[in-house]
Design a protein that fits this description.
heterodimer; A: four-stranded mixed beta sheet; 7 helices; 12 strands; 32% helix; 23% strand; globular; B: alpha/beta; six-stranded parallel beta sheet; four-stranded mixed beta sheet; binds iron/sulfur cluster
């Protein structure tokens, strides 16, 4: 197959060298200058995400595990998938009280509980690295402690968002934090529950992924 | 016009008779056009991000061979296996060999235009592998055993009733319903089982980042995430032009792509994949393969003007705004890429012999050029291909194949008449006297008058009128 590789690259090089193209400068000012003031950012994120059916749960640093539990209980949720080895996971398991939805740890490789994951889990909770005002998106970087499918397979995805971890644009989030120096296995922006408009342009939610996205805002 | 194995003219006149189809397209495209306009209402912002996006694409093209090498090196460093294919046959063979090695029986696919170009589903089926489209629109089209009619909204040609009938007919557990939420739910149930059991997931690539070896995928449904996360093997296929230089080049292109395509500020998911499952990680595929496809692109790249075709980010906006596409729909083009971009890309990839008709499926109104977020001079390329079709040359496969004696003679006659004042005066005087007497059923004229009223000639020429007003002929 490397024969094709060399043929393709050779042809591209010959084509380009015969008719070189001057690489234009890219002016990122249009992204650099997009700014929102303090409180406006969160307002905008909420407005944009609500427009695509995202729900919000306001809570505090001290009270979020209890508030999440009360919320899920009220929704009739049977269980919640969580990452036991994260800081948030540790708080959930220590503050979770009897009688509510069951806490299910994502502790092993998916192969060992794929069936239950696809058929028996109502909700999953993950942390975020923040959110983006320009587009109303959460930044989610799955880790070994918080695997990828937690935010995808359960019918409801709860995402913890700290109200001070907000960015203006996607571009700012990645340049300020130097993402290019080391990308994770899978980095994600999530802006709402799964949706489609493939049937006569009619919006329907939850076609493959979560039907509900609940952002838990921690102030 | 030369022999054409694919007949746009015939297919488009059939489409024009289909009132249902025309209604379906008209409604959808009108909606998309007005919603898109809202997204780019701030003209200064649109100009800024458009210029930036175009520069990102041009910069990538200016360093294309180097960036592909860098992409390969960084992907390999990250554990992604890179393969190169000169032709679609070769790409199919690469995909098949990976499947056979892992003994795959079922494949779930995210949406990928390159895999349409490869006719991958049919190929895999021939080898006993079930290849299931998982994007809802693609799934509908696959059930219907048809082709997508739009690159962003594959089933846009069908309405809810038609889809309801199709589901009832093709899905065992289906009850007849026209409720979109219920239809969607049914597809969810069917496809979830497939995601959980598939051996391989296939996806396209919206953009590949040379700097970090990252594959970007934008989508709303989550089927792309499912296909690239649940099965143990992920195969991504991409055209070689899809590379960008830096990670920071991604945001402006995504912003232009999602806003132009479906008028969303961003899609539900932006997925950036940089490696297979690492030690300690609990899910994700153990293997990722990236297949980089040429299929004529390196030839397009060699030509300074045609090269601009490779800037395309596949947003579909040119289709939504094209007066021809919006009337006849995507199927008339009989190509994986329809509309303006298809009309310039298909002849370059497959040759003018079979696709030489497509550059004529254009009114040269420039709507696509005005809308294209990366400023591709589509109409100029269209004109170039029209002329290539009738002149021998070697820039585009099949150049000269549409040269016809009759057409050449007509144009020669036309230019001679226009070059000689005497001949011009004689011809116009003749038409003024006799033109209106010509019956509408005359050959050539008939094709025009079929769907339009016959033009009426004035009984005195402009020259004659001007002379009467005292303006002398020069
Ligand atoms: S040619 Fe331009 S408008 Fe058409 S699909 Fe490509 S990028 Fe979009």
């Amino acid at each position: 197959m490397s024969e094709s590789r060399n043929a393709i690259l050779g042809k591209l090089r010959a084509g380009r060298d015969a008719h070189p193209l001057t690489p234009p400068e890219s002016d990122f000012a249009v992204l650099r200058n997009k700014r929102w003031e303090g409180a406006e950012r969160l307002e905008r994120i909420k407005r944009m995400m609500e427009a695509v059916h995202t729900e919000f749960l306001e809570t505090t640093e001290a009270g979020w595990p209890a508030d999440v539990q009360a919320f899920l209980k009220a929704q009739g949720t049977r269980n919640l998938l969580f990452g036991p080895a994260t800081e948030a996971g540790a708080r959930l398991s220590s503050e979770w009280t009897e009688g509510g939805p069951e806490l299910v740890p994502y502790a092993d490789r998916v192969e060992t509980f794929k069936e239950r994951l696809f058929d028996g889990i109502d909700a999953g909770i993950t942390t975020t690295l923040g959110a983006i005002a320009d587009t109303g998106s959460l930044i989610v970087w799955p880790t070994p402690e918080e695997p990828r499918l937690m935010s995808l397979v359960p019918h409801m995805h709860l995402a913890l968002l700290r109200a001070d971890a907000l960015y203006d644009t996607f571009w700012q989030a990645m340049t300020e934090n130097r993402w290019a120096d080391g990308m994770p296995t899978n980095a994600l922006l999530i802006s709402g529950p799964s949706k489609t408009a493939d049937i006569e342009q009619t919006l329907a939610y939850g076609v493959h992924g979560p039907k509900r996205l609940v952002v838990v805002i921690i102030r | 016009m030369g022999e054409s194995s694919i007949n746009f003219a015939k297919a488009s006149s059939a489409a024009l008779q289909d009132q249902q189809l025309r209604g379906n397209f008209r409604r959808a495209m009108d909606g998309l056009m007005s919603k898109r306009a809202v997204q780019f209402a701030d003209t200064a912002e649109w100009n800024g991000v458009r210029t930036l996006g175009a520069s990102v694409r041009l910069r990538a093209l200016s360093k294309l061979p180097e960036l592909l090498e860098k992409l390969e090196a960084n992907c390999t460093k990250n554990g992604i296996q890179v393969h190169w294919a000169s032709t679609t046959d070769e790409a199919n063979a690469i995909v098949l060999s990976i499947m056979q090695r892992v003994n795959a029986k079922l494949v779930v696919k995210g949406k990928s235009m390159v895999s349409e170009e490869m006719h991958l589903n049919a190929f895999l089926e021939k080898h006993g592998i079930e290849s299931l489209e998982s994007d809802l629109g693609e799934y509908i089209v696959q059930l219907d055993e048809a082709m997508p009619s739009h690159i962003i909204m594959p089933a846009i040609h069908m309405n809810t009733k038609q889809i309801a009938h199709l589901f009832k007919q093709k899905i065992k557990e289906a009850e007849y319903t026209e409720d979109v939420a219920q239809l969607t739910d049914l597809a969810r149930r069917v496809l979830r089982k497939k995601f959980a059991t598939a051996d391989v997931g296939i996806s396209g690539v919206n953009m590949a980042v040379a700097e970090t070896g990252t594959l970007c995928l934008v989508e709303n449904e989550g089927n792309g995430r499912m296909s690239t996360t649940v099965p143990p093997v992920h195969i991504a296929v991409m055209g070689l032009e899809k590379v960008v230089e830096k990670l920071e080049d991604v945001p402006p292109v995504i912003s232009l792509l999602t806003r132009s395509a479906t008028a969303q500020p961003i899609t539900t998911y932006v997925n950036m994949i940089s490696s297979p499952r690492k030690a300690g990680e609990k899910d994700g595929p153990d293997e990722i393969h990236l297949v980089i496809l040429d299929n004529g692109r390196s030839g397009i790249y060699a030509d300074e003007e045609l090269r601009n075709t490779l800037r395309c980010i596949r947003c579909g906006a040119c289709m939504n705004h094209c007066p021809v596409y919006t009337k006849v729909g995507g199927h008339a083009y009989q190509a994986p890429y329809p509309g303006p971009i298809g009309s310039i890309l298909m002849p370059q990839v497959e040759g003018l012999e079979t696709r030489g008709e497509l550059p004529h499926a254009c009114t040269m109104c420039n709507a696509c050029v005005e809308i294209c977020p990366v400023k591709i001079p589509i109409v100029e390329i269209m004109g170039r291909l029209r002329s290539e079709a009738v002149h021998p040359g070697d820039a585009v496969k099949g150049a000269g194949s549409h040269a016809s004696k009759a057409e050449t003679m007509v144009w020669k006659g036309w230019s001679m008449t226009y070059a000689s004042p005497l001949a011009y005066q004689f011809a116009t005087a003749l038409l003024a006297k006799l033109g209106n007497a010509a019956p509408a059923s005359l050959p050539l004229l008939k094709e025009w008058t079929n769907v339009r009223s016959k033009p009426r000639f004035a009984n005195r020429t402009l020259h004659a009128l001007a002379r009467e007003k005292g303006i002398p002929d020069v």
